Amino acid sequence: MKNSLLALLLVLGIGASGFVGKAKAAADGSAKLMQLEADFAKATAEHGVEGFISYFADDAVDLPDRGPIVSGKENIRKSLGTWGPDVSLSWTPVHAEMAASGDLGYTYGTYVYKAKGQDGKPVTGNGKYTTIWKKQKDGSWKVILDMGNSSPPPPAGAAR
User: Which residues contact 61 (CB under 8 A, 6 or more apart)?
Assistant: First the structure.
């Protein structure tokens, strides 16, 4: 009886430690993706479109709001056009999750796009986004799919 109880406790302990290990790996993966998002947003804020596109893989895909699918980093770059000093894109990730394999993950959240309209007046666009990240052969992480769609502005005083 004692041996059976000891064996059961040992099995449960090993199983629990595996679960704890997986939970820690998932949390570490989510934290890694949130840090990637912070770095991505910083590069965009500091360098505009060039900072933004620098996080895309060569074979990335963009699914722009109300636009056609754009495949390939260079085509995405062309579709974004030139961003003048009056253009800004900022975002706030809400959730991040890493695959158990540790080489693929996704984030989603909200964004704010600001620019001047054709009439010269400020224009603000709000929306939601999803980004899929993939670990590259060199160990870096790149965006392989990005999509966003517009939303009404949040209510006054609400968090983005």
Answer: 69, 70, 71, 144, 145, 146
